[in-house]
């Protein structure tokens, strides 16, 4: 089966904009509260779309409740909360570099849980792309917060697990419903965390902050996560994840365009290396797909994909 790469590429471009757009908001709204607000906006948007599409909100199958709870609470809730917190504790460059490790973790989990075959070309391509990210962002300046690094690594592990579980539970559901269930379940722990956080650090909502939150909720969260779930429902998790370096590259480009950041020789070299790595991974994925024998629908899903 031929997979489309346009969806995951677009998703990572939108996620790359998070680093640029969230800057004014992060100065006035604490991290967990900001995450809760943008996910809440996304859930409301998804509920409206699903209601208009089906006449009522969809229901998850009883046997899948545990998996959706894991995706929502661990992947979206704890995973993204750890990412927001680590972004506050680390330089943006180091945070971006650590987040770029997601595809490697997804490759491992997809092989273990979904029995996806990972080619050597994919691995080499992703490692090359991560090296390109290092050329662009470096390792960060100043003192490195060890707790921040640990929290960032926990975020990578939890988000990667949530992405693989999304692929495992996606059959038989509208991708919009998958996103609605997952993000909706994350609001319970995030709401508690936000309440505790706001008691110590009350948010300040300026016009710039409100515009940023609306963009983060409507575009970078609702739209991007709908597209991510569609991609995971139709394409192997390892294939989707090989475009993760696009996020760091697009973030750097937007920083240059919108924030006036300098174009350095490291950026040019890094962009070339990232592009080469992604092309290598995509070519390897295409060859692997062509060489894989067609399987009947009933046997193409692993044991964990079908209860």
Short overview:
The protein is built from 12 helices and no strands. The chain is mainly alpha-helical.
- Structural class category: mainly alpha
Number of domains: 1
Query: Over the alpha carbons, how many angstroms does the gyration radius reach?
Result: 19 Å
Structure annotation, total helices: 12
Envelope shape: globular
State the helicity in percent bands. Answer: over 70%
- What portion of residues belong to β-strands? under 5%
Order of helices and strands: HHHHHHHHHHHH
Number of strands: 0
Give the overall average pLDDT. Answer: 79
Care to describe what's here?
The chain has 12 helices and no strands. It is mainly alpha-helical. It has helices at 6-26, 31-54, 65-89, 92-99, 102-113, 120-137, 146-169, 175-200, 207-234, 237-241, 245-259, 265-291. Mean pLDDT is 79; it is low at 292-307. The longest helix is centred in the last third of the chain and has 28 residues, at 207-234.
List keywords for this structure.
mainly alpha, globular, single chain, 307 residues, disordered C terminus, 76% helix
Annotate the secondary structure layout.
Blueprint: H1 6-26, H2 31-54, H3 65-89, H4 92-99, H5 102-113, H6 120-137, H7 146-169, H8 175-200, H9 207-234, H10 237-241, H11 245-259, H12 265-291
């Amino acid at each position: 089966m031929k997979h489309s790469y346009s969806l995951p590429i677009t998703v990572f471009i939108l996620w790359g904009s998070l680093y640029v757009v969230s800057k004014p908001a992060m100065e006035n709204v604490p991290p967990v509260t900001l995450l809760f607000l943008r996910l809440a906006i996304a859930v409301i948007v998804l509920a409206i779309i699903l209601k208009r599409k089906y006449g009522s909100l969809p229901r998850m199958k009883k046997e899948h409740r545990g998996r959706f709870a894991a995706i929502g609470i661990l992947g979206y809730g704890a995973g993204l909360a750890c990412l927001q917190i680590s972004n506050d504790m680390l330089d943006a460059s180091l945070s971006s570099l650590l987040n770029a490790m997601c595809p490697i973790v997804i490759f491992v989990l997809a092989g273990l849980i979904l029995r996806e075959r990972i080619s050597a070309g994919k691995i080499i391509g992703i490692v090359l792309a991560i090296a390109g990210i290092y050329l662009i962002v470096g390792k960060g300046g100043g003192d490195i917060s060890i707790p921040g690094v640990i929290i960032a690594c926990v975020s990578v592990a939890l988000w990667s697990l949530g992405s693989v579980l999304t692929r495992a539970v996606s059959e038989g559901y509208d991708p919009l419903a998958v996103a609605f269930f997952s993000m909706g379940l994350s609001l319970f722990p995030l709401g508690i965390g936000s309440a505790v956080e706001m008691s110590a650090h009350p948010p300040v909502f300026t016009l710039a902050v409100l515009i940023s939150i609306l963009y983060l909720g409507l575009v970078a969260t609702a739209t991007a996560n709908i597209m991510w779930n569609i991609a995971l429902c139709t394409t192997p998790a390892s294939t989707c994840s090989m475009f993760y370096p696009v996020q760091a590259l697009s973030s750097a480009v937007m920083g240059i365009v919108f924030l006036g950041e300098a174009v350095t020789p490291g950026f040019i070299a890094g962009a070339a290396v990232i592009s080469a790595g992604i092309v290598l991974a995509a070519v390897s994925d295409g060859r692997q797909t062509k060489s894989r024998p067609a399987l009947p629908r009933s046997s193409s899903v692993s044991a964990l994909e079908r209860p």
